[in-house]
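Lab meeting minutes (informal)
Scribe: AK
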Amino acid sequence: MVQGAAFTPRHRVKSPNAAECDNPTLMACVPQRILLIRPSALGDVCRTVPILASLRAAYPNAQIDWMVRDSYVDAVVAHPALSEVVPFPRRRFARVLIDRTVRREFLQWLRALRRREYDLVLDCQGLGRSGLFALLSGAPRRVGPADARELGWLGYTVRHRIPRNAEHTVERMLALLRAEGIAVVEDMRLYVPPEAGAWWRGRLPPARYGVIAPTARWASKCWPMDRWVMLAQWLAEERGLPVAIIGAPGEESQVAPLLAAVREENGARIPGGDLVGKTSVGQMMAVIRDAALVVANDSAPLHMAVGLDRPCVALFGPTDPRLVGPWKRPGAVVQPTMSPDRSPGAYRDRAQSDAWIAGITLDAVKRCVDAQLAAPAPLNLAREAQGDCGE
């Protein structure tokens, strides 16, 4: 069922009188109960935080909740602008058509969602499922992009056309706010859950360290593993940065050569730590927050690094960094020259494998690493806001 996080909501308010907000096409009243819909993917959830920050600045007394996949709750649960999370158990609900018990749970979840009586729902996912949830929320004003895919736009009472100059996915979401007359706050800060910060505090290396995130959901986004091995060795031996290797559960096989190098006691040993599959989302955020550098493919850890204000290097293959790159960090991107007969976006093509991203040379990554390390140190607003241990 719909539930809040394990903390006291910080902005709980009463629902407004429905009669005051009976025109769903006009922002004639100040919304008091707002639902932000962005369930997945993890990197996209991290990039959606500026929407939350903007909503809180515009409506300081409103109840602002976020529907997010249950396994990604850690990414937003500690944000001070959030009232509550509405966990969406996607994996369990995937059985809704074949399991009677799950079907009953799903219906209970929907009824609980509707009982929250939201008066404004903002769909930042723009897909069929998220549009359906917006519709079923029963909110009188349901806002989303006019070009929402999978007929998701049918769930909205207000459909905004996104300007063509809003290329980046963050800018597209912010365009929804601008169309609503809501002032934009360009604040993507992420906040590490206190328990995750405490977990990493007990394991924090005594010296500076780097983080490498060598995995991604699609093979076409993954830089060849042998180069990750050489990069990790170079970082440790030439730049004094032993590395922590991070990844999700089930990705261990993708990084086997790198993990073997980390564990190797003889020969070209790489100092560092194997954290692949060993952290929660919140713990991964804690590891990234305290790192001197993060090097990643186009994946969630990259966007965590941006939200946690860490120097980062982003390796891009077929995906277009103008659309999905590290927000406001164009100098952090390394990408091979694109052939005129190929265009970004074909990353789901299994036949493509890693042929494109393999065009990134080790030397190119080293140059970008040195540039990022030599740049003025980030303000680390995430640490400043949370204290040294995120508590």
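Next up, CB showed the second protein from the same session:
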Amino acid sequence: MIEHNIITKTEKRSILGEIIVTLFEQCNMSCKFCNQDHNSKVGMDTIRDKLPVVKRAIENMSKTREMFSVHFMGGEVFSDLVPDSCFDDYKYLADELEVWSKENNYDVEICFTTNFVYEQTHRLQKLLDQCPQVKLLTSYDPSGRFGLGQLNLFKKNVIAFEKYIKSANVIMTKPNIDKFLKGDKKFLILSAPTGSGKSFFSKTISNLTNECTENFRELVDSYEIYKLDKHGEFLYKDNLDREKPFGAFALTITKPLQDQYKSFFDDAKVLKGKINHQCAIDETKDVEIAPCVIVEKIKKDCWGKCICPYYEDRNRLLTSQFGVLNYSMFLSLPEDLRKKEILICDEAGVRRRDRQKI
């Protein structure tokens, strides 16, 4: 089990230790994103030998983790190609690990990952009846992982074993992300534990969005985009209306989360409040209480010279493919400047009030 430095670096340490154990590579499917040898039977006769390795991993991780989730997987561990003897070995692993964890006061969850594409479901049902501590994990690929017969079998078995399934994940390959971006679904909800890579998922989606047009970039960089007519409307509102949404905004709830995105991705553009920026012409003040608050001409002069750190950061955010800001900052932006191809609401459940406004 490799602990990624990313968790230590951001001080977002999960209490859950996850251990993934590949028992063998033989599989009844040939997914394009998988590089395993689907015909190999190597490992089928040494399944029980994996138990000491799992125990050592739990012991080593117990210094920094309070709970453990052990995932046994293939290949496909429950396929019709697998001999009955393997199911006896699965029961051995589950039973022995359950007893050992209780004797040593470890909180251990036991899971098997499966694609649910098989006919002989009675063997799986027997295993689950004998080992009620076992949970199932599965995944779904909406962009063609299954043939029609395989998809029907998958759906049938998911329904049959629904009460044993802990999670069913969508495989986020590029075709699937493209399908989401071009589809008619407006919302995608991702619920995953700390350290599972949600930030990288957000960035991956943003990388597949469109970039801003040169016309929009020029209007922003020159500050022309902020000019108002006599009615208080944007002078270039027609231009904004013609612009297609592009890029992504990631909305966070704290400054450390904004810093985390920036530490992961050099090209992320972060915008914090004015109080976080030092005035360019009066270093004793932040932009929140800078001279331009009282004298509008000073702000326009700084705009013309492109020297205000806050407004320059705002311009970079507005033209970026991946911008990071908090909910309050996003809601304070003029509505015409909020248009994005993708809006990522990080920690969305925490900010229910702001989510309703959005």
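CB comment: The radius of gyration is 26 Å.
No objections, moving on.
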